[in-house]
Design a protein that fits this description.
alpha/beta, Purple Acid Phosphatase, chain A, domain 2, four-stranded mixed beta sheet, 12 helices, 16 strands, 31% helix, globular
Amino acid sequence: MMLDPARSYDLIGDVHGCAHTLEHLLDMLGYRRQGGVWRHPQRMALFLGDIIDRGPRIREALHIVHDMVEAGQARCIMGNHEFNALGWSTAAPPESGKQYVREHTPRHARLIEATLTQFDQHPGDWHDFLGWFYELPLFLDAGRFRLVHACWDGGLIDSLRAHHANGCIDQHFLQAAAVPGSFACTVFDRLLRGTDMRLPDGLTLTGGDGLTRAFFRTKFWEEDPQTYGDIVFQPDALPEQVARTPLSASQKNALLRYGLDEPMLFVGHYWRSGKPAPIRPNLACLDYSAVLYGKLVAYRLDEETRLDPRKFVWVDVERPEVLQ
């Protein structure tokens, strides 16, 4: 089903299993539950992926979104967590040297643990949802606006469209992603995880999530960055001496740039904080850390071609959502 660029939409950020908060947000937006499905008489919901993992009601959240999509009341794109779930459950091709597309390391197991635990008594349900994840496109392009979970790379998306016009992939493409450096691996990494850069001098950083990384997430729209600090885009700040480090000419040339003249772009993924607002007149991130007692955020899109700061709507997530 193609998006009608003239229709009104409610774009919703990363849910991560916060089903009660999602219901509260939908209610605020004027959706009502009819026949077991949340519906709006004029509008449609567009979800930016990452419905699963981390939160307290993952199965319930998936049913809400899935049922809305099946009833024509919503669309949902794939997030990196849906991709991770498929990779965790799918055997890798022999040439990859792996057993699964997403290797069963302790770190990966910790990230998917809440999801697998909550589906432990519902294996058929989980099997069906894994099949449904293949129906989630990696991007949506309505002409006037675009959706991707983490990063819009026009060249990669054009190449992907040549083989998967609707943005949906199959098991063969998923398995190809197990081979580092392959086209499939690059597509998933860029569109669902964004751009990154290695920290200088062999440094690593341990983030607020407890994971230690040698890379940091970078902006894909900065016009004239000069230092590492100009391009960092993640909750964890760089050490001051790293932030002041100048970028080399080759590093600047390697950066992706989403221009101000391009259509409005909506992403999730990045764990923003503070009051929801546009990043640029044509770029908004709607992930405000709902599952870490942040906000579940929506943007009410109508006929505008540039983002209106007054059209962000959100629910502040209280601790009982996680503790009940």
